[in-house]
Amino acid sequence: MPGAAGGAGCGPDLQPAAAGAGRGHARPERLAGAGEQGAARRGTPGSGQPAGAWAELAAALQRAGDLPPMLPAAGAAAEVQRALEAAARTLPPDQRGPLREAYRLFRDFDRLPPGQRAERVARAVDLVARAAAPAAGESPGRRIPLGGEPAPAGAPSQGRTVPPGGPPAPVPVAPAGGPSAAAGTAPAPAAGAGASGPSGRRSPLAGSGAGEITPATPLGRLPGVGRRQAQRLARLGLHTAGDLLWHLPRRYEDRSTWKPIARLVPGEVATVQGVVVAAQRVPTRTRRVVVRVTISDGSGRLDAVFFNQPFRLQQLPPGRPVRLSGRVEAGYRGWQMDHPEVELLEGEGDEPVHTARIVPVYPATEGLHQRWLRQLAWQVVGALAGRVPEILPEELRRQLNLVERAQALRDIHFPPDAEAWQAARRRLAFEEWFVMQVALARVRSQQQQEPGRAHRPDGPRVARFLAALPFELTPAQRRVLDEIRADMEAPRPMRRLVQGDVGSGKTVIAAWAMVKAVESGAQAALMAPTEILAEQHARRLQQLLAPAGIPVVLLVGSQPAADRERVLQGLATGQWPVVVGTHALIQENVRFRDLGLVIIDEQHRFGVRQRALLQDKGRRPDLLVMTATPIPRTLALTLYGDLDVSVIDQLPPGRQPVRTVWLRGRQRRKAYDLLAARVAAGEQGYVVCPLVDDPAAGPAGDGPGSGGQAAGGEGPAPGPGGAPEDAEHKAVTTWAEYVARRYPRLRVGILHGRMPGPEKERVMRAFERRALDVLVATTVIEVGVDVPNATVMIIEGADRFGLAQLHQLRGRVGRGSKESLCILVADPASAEGRMRLEALCRSQSGFDIAEFDLQLRGPGDFFGTRQHGLPALRIADPVKDAGLLRLAREAARRLLERDPGLDAPAHRSLREEVVARYGEFLAEARALWS
């Protein structure tokens, strides 16, 4: 290999060479001269031998490139890294960025195949040439080819441009060095375009050798993000730099102030700043590597101890200024920190990332360490935050005293203080509500402009229906009927949500609306989420609509082909005015003669697309959606802001409240004794069981264990290959055998969602006609099951279900005039679990329970059942930010009144944001801006 002198003659014209013929290796010997000339000419302080450092780097790169494939590469990689560190010390801090990026290329060098090693060496040569170019006298803007010999004079250049003034300053964090990102160490920063960092100070976060960072830049192209890390980021839904920009911290750690070492207290988490005075490898009896680094701040000394991190000896040499954050312990030599966060201090203008500030902690997944993720976020925030378009009108920001969007993004990721974080959070929460409310207001506005069917006033069929009801409607039901009547008789499509607690009489409301639609010459369809519920609705509606002379048919997936064909033909010809079904109703071969009313039961089980598919089978039919899951008003505005909301907040007279009690597992026998006594008195009961994988006996053999997954869906999903069906079958079978063994006189049936439709129907019919005493079931009975003689329900593992689901299950009893009882059997391990069960025992109101659940656990569970097309909230909280939601709703209304199409230049960025975030929802609601 040519020596350093051989490369010196090339002078400032030196360029990185192309891959060598036949082997694809770079020719780094041509780098030596530029580094030597630049360092010698400038006289930069460094190792004392600047020219020798660059020559040694060129030689190390050459040896790495020439390494035979069969030889281990760890030694060559370490040699290159040492040479890079030595060369970096010959440069001022603001020109070390390319060398740091080159350092990272050799972290996993020994695990790469030969072809990728050659590629890494070639990239490193390119980066080293960039670092050497300003020192060697490169003119500003000179292009450095990415491969091949130097471009001849006059030839067009194909490489990237070195910006005037040379490479920008590096990110002010620890210099390259240390283990891979998987070991928890931040990657070396990349050189970039010199954008401002999150604090507004200059830091090169905007680009790298791979090109400028844009919101669409794949994360896999960012420095330090390899294939595996990109896959891990994808698990979090992070694919592009723009995704990461909006990946907001879930909490923060305050490392903003540092203390003198002399004032440290054992056990506290503290930040200290000082100078390394000693670094040594501590001998051990095992092969474990222990490095002890001693720092001093003038008031005292502190030992930082690192295990299995030998690179710390090179990273923290004596004389290095450093900042450490960690837990303080009393060591045998004085104060000690084990594995502290390390921040190297490069210069006066450095911005800390991991210490000496309020540090963000991000949602992560296995294999993504906080330090690495924080470093990546710092890079992306600095590159993109200042370039995001402002979407809120200036007048609105001024009225509400909201900070600018760019500043909010910087401060939400890397807040300088608590006040800045609060201002950033308030701005972003309002923005999130505002964008959502603009989308919802657009839908409502579009719906109001659509022509619809104006149904006739109530006629004789409606009168016969009401006269035949065996009960009086409650005032709440009459109020909701009046609201629906006004909607249906108006010349625009109805879009209304009816909320009602369990047993409040929503089915009667739906039946009345069907009669009104049929009396106007239209057809009506009701879609339910399960076949059991659809079958029960069909039977109930047949009874209610018979006095009005209106037949009802059923359409579900398990129907015989002949029956299905008969129903399809009748719907197409108008023979069947009312149909009840499941998702089978939205199949392509289902056609209506004149569909005028669509009713969706248990709306949260469906998405916008599914209800839109059913609506599209008519000419802008009226839409009535119903839910028995009580939703607090703030969430109703969020989840169903495109719908008018009606609430049935009264129970029919004569309904007995369900007494709810909570028993520990050791008291289980009392619950089943009471169930047996009720059955002996002629009543019936339910046992709702969790999904158990192992029928292990409980305390003193008093019942099956409660391990495994809850039927409510909390916990890991069952595995493939029929596991869900097996789990459900095993669950109900285990508990049914327990009841039958303890109480052999009881007639016990089982029911779960994976049973064939005819079998489920057979079991339910048997239970309804009292051929069964006890029905052991999963949560398949959560909605729609109506057996007035069932007065007792035992819910096993009750602490695993959500409060709303427990309330729904409880609603299956108490449907007659007899006193009913719901017994919760659980041994909750947390205080929150106990509070939830106590709340259910105290309250009968689903709305009160929903408010309590929302305050206790936040909106996450509610948004788990949100409509498809409405993305999850990033930062806004319906509990904390209810006031902001009201402000945003009103502001959105006023804005669209002035500019319905958001066509004003000041509103175009807002329109783009609304379409980008809610485009699917708007398209499905046919309200997308053209």
Report the radius of gyration as a whole number of Å: 35 Å
Separate helix tally: 29
Low-confidence stretches: 1-50, 135-210, 692-701, 705-725, 860-869
Biggest β-sheet strands, sense, barrel: 7 strands, parallel
* CA-CA gap between termini: 65 Å
Question: Can you give the helix content as a percent range?
Answer: 25-40%
Strand content: 5-15%
* Content-based structural category: alpha/beta
Oligomeric status: single chain
Order of strands, widest sheet? 15-16-14-17-18-13-19
- In total, how many beta strands? 25
Shape: elongated
Average predicted local confidence, pLDDT: 76
Keywords:
seven-stranded parallel beta sheet, 29 helices, elongated, disordered N terminus
Summarize the structure.
By secondary structure, the protein is of the alpha/beta class.
Question: Explain this structure to me?
Answer:
The chain has 930 residues and is α/β, with parallel strands linked by helices. It is built from 29 helices and 25 strands. The strands form six sheets. A seven-stranded parallel β-sheet has the order 15-16-14-17-18-13-19, with helices on both faces. The protein has a six-stranded parallel β-sheet with strand order 20-25-24-21-23-22, with helices on both faces. The longest helix is centred in the middle third of the chain and has 32 residues. The chain starts with a helix and ends in a 6-residue tail after the last helix.
